[in-house]
Amino acid sequence: MSPSQIIRFLKRNPLLVYVNIPGMGIGLTVVLLLLVYINQEMSYDQHFETKNRVLRLYNSVNDQGRITNYGIGLRSSYTDIPLHVPEIESATQIYRGWDVNLEMKNQTFYNLDLLYADPGFFDVFNLNLMRGDKTKALSGSHQIIVTDILAKKIFGTDDCLGEILTIFDEDYTVTGVIRKLPRNTHFNFDMLASMQTENPDEFEGLEFYTYFLINKKADIANVSKSIESINNKLMEPWAKRVDVEVSSRTELLKNIYMHSNVDYDLSEKANYTAIIVMILIALFVLIIAIINYINIYILQGEKRLSEIATRTSLGASKLKLAKLFYTETGIISTLAFMMAIIMAIMVKPLFENLLNTSIDDSAFFSLNNIVLLLSILAFIIVVSGAYPSFYLTRFNLTNALKGKTNNVNRKHIMSSSAVTLQLTISIFLITSFIVILSQVNYLKSIDMGFNPEKVVGFDVFRPSLFRNHESIENELSKLPFITQIGWSAHSMGGGCSGQSIKMYGSNQASRSIDEYKVLPGFAETMQLQIISGRFFNKGIADVDKLIINEAAARLLGLDDPVGKIADMFNQPAEIIGLVRDFPYRNRPGMEIEPLVLNNYGGYPMMLYVRTDRNVTKEMIESIESVLREYDPEYFSNHHLISDLYAEKLQNEKQLIKMVSTGALLASIISFIGLLALSVLKVNRRTKEIGVRKVLGDSEIGILNMLLRETLVLLLLSMIIAFITSYIAMNYWLSGFSDRISLNWSHFLISGFSAAIIMMLSVGWQSWRAARRNPVEALRYE
């Protein structure tokens, strides 16, 4: 077609322009964003040249049926295994450091990622330094490598070898500068310090992530078995000490992000729920768009029956007519495709916020995405053009010249099926949104076993602070808005220590249990709910006393644990309190693991303050001014406990955004499609409506006739969608120990919403047709 022919074609078919192009454009936009997102997720760690021959070791720990996969292992896994497996070319371990703040040149650099690694780090991951000697940069104590981005922020240049950085009151020498690793890496850092700084040989527990570089000619499967077998033997003393079963496993570097079973990894892993939901939404929206396109194209094409019949009578073959239809569908699809690219770039910020991620603009134009998008475009053209080409060329020539169609039943079935599928998808998504929203609101409302409101935590992991914590507490208690002060060695809502416990003098095996090391006042500050017993008192008499949660009491088989003597650290420890279960590690609503609060005799790492009102900026400044009296270089590092626990529901909130967006898009496209279909169907029955009115049929009767079929399809869609959503949402809710029960209200709202969509799109056109003057209707025909 020439440009002028294309313009005439579009002018003659306004529904294709105003309905099909935007509808298909929205569908393709969602698909394009999905492709970019999935491609980005699957690209994790693929930039490492050694991705196919680097194995990471992990340990599957079975504690009497409770299995946890630990990515961390013993130091001996690094020192001993390479001696017995000649196929290992190099090895390294990574030790997770703290998020640290640096203050240099009157500037503060917040929340910098610090990792520790062995010298083999560069060989294992085939990385090079921009500055420095990679063979020596991590070979000694207190050596540190910084990324080029951080170097320029701190020093104004990446030429900074030999500069000194002070972290936790210890000086580190900059021995290298490395290019910042891509975001799609399963570990990342701003600073990489030498492992020797931490005296790793003194660690007796599971602390280190272990990686091995395997020889190119070696059989990876056999090497994996050798590594696992040796590590099983190395783990035997540790497993015997804590009385658990350990089975060692390995995984390839390229599979860690997408397929790892490791719990509590160096970073978050792929969110399969988000990926599956995105795929379903993209598929649903695209299906609705294609259905609309085919239906409207066919119904619009019926107006061209005389043209088609004339072309046929003049010798046009079915192949030539099919070529015409494919050309037209190609024009519409191409315009929709171009619109999709523009829309995708425009809505990228909203999409990034939706999935809590960031996407490079270049990702839209990568070779893989271009090939995939062109393939999808070709598929849409074939699918969208196939049925019109087959359907519109099979009419009886005599009837077609009169503008009449045969195959009424086939049109009816196709149209009804399309409407049913569109409404079913919309109802399913709306119902899912309502259920997910209800569950999240329920999780926000349940009693968590403690009170996270009006509590702010401060990182005090600096010697000048934690050594003076008693004096600091005395000063803070003078501030009028502070009602309670607590200290701990663990971050509330964050990580914890793993210990073993049993009843003192018992022959029973020890059980693994999580531990929070706290000081007196912590439980009161968090307002933990005491069931029996008491909290810790200050003074030497309560040191090494224990408070346990309900899950721990069940673990130990104790109905009344207060006053009982437990065995921890191979010494007796009295249980003085039993508290309600509270979410200390997982998000609210998940099963709560056994926990012991130990009255810690060492130095605290975290300070917690409860206030008598909502925390303000002025309160924070007052607290920090006290901390700076003991550490003039202290820089702000605080967080609200309520915010921390709100973030634990981030995945659920993200799911709400995705499903609600999908429901909105599906509803909009369905509304547009149903509106267009109703216009065409009413126009097709204009003569019948006119005859009925001449014969005395009322407007209500006409309206009932036009809406009856749609109402039946709506009820059928509701039944299918309700059954499907009930099964899907029950499965999703099964992942929560605290959950809502599905009831009729969740489905009533979605059904009512679908009815509104149907009435707005079909009801108005039907009402207009019912009120039309029959003389005009007959004249129209």
From TrEMBL:
InterPro entries in the cross-refs: ABC3_permease_C (IPR003838), MacB_PCD (IPR025857), Macrolide_Exporter_MacB (IPR050250)
A Gene Ontology cellular-component term: plasma membrane
UniProt keyword annotations, A-Z: Cell membrane, Membrane, Transmembrane, Transmembrane helix
Residue ranges of domain MacB-like periplasmic core in the record: 23-229
Localization of this protein: Cell membrane
Highest taxon in the source lineage: Bacteria
Transmembrane segments annotated in the record for this chain: 15-38, 272-294, 324-347, 367-392, 413-437, 658-680, 711-732, 744-764
Residue ranges constituting the ABC3 transporter permease C-terminal domain according to the UniProt record: 279-396, 663-774
Topology versus the membrane: Multi-pass membrane protein
Gene Ontology molecular-function annotations: transmembrane transporter activity
One Pfam entry name: FtsX
UniProt protein name: Putative ABC transport system permease protein
Organism of origin: Natronoflexus pectinivorans
